[in-house]
Amino acid sequence: MGHARCDGTTEDGSFGRLVNDSSHPNCKVQCFEEEGLPSLYFVALRDILPGEEVVYNYGAGPYPWRKKPKAGQESANDD
Ligand SMILES: C[S@@+](CC[C@H](N)C(=O)[O-])C[C@H]1O[C@@H](n2cnc3c(N)ncnc32)[C@H](O)[C@@H]1O
Hints:
This protein is mostly beta strands. 0% of the residues lie in helices and 25% in strands.
């Protein structure tokens, strides 16, 4: 399957749209064809512990939350 884009604006009852970005991901997104349609799945890259946040790498940014905090700022995060 080649490159595909996904419309994340339609609510489908799944939790995939709640997964945050991280440069230290514990899963990746993979596209499989299911009944002739592309379906996105989160595939674990390692064991994920109970209570641990599931995160994947959104890919090339820029994303504001990846900015390093400037000296004296505490709210920004690097992940
Ligand atoms: C697919 S949604 C992820 C779920 C979202 N956090 C929520 O509660 O609905 C993508 C949005 O989540 C936020 N987000 C994703 N990863 C983040 C991170 N590492 N730090 C802060 N915000 C993040 C951004 O606002 C982004 O536009």
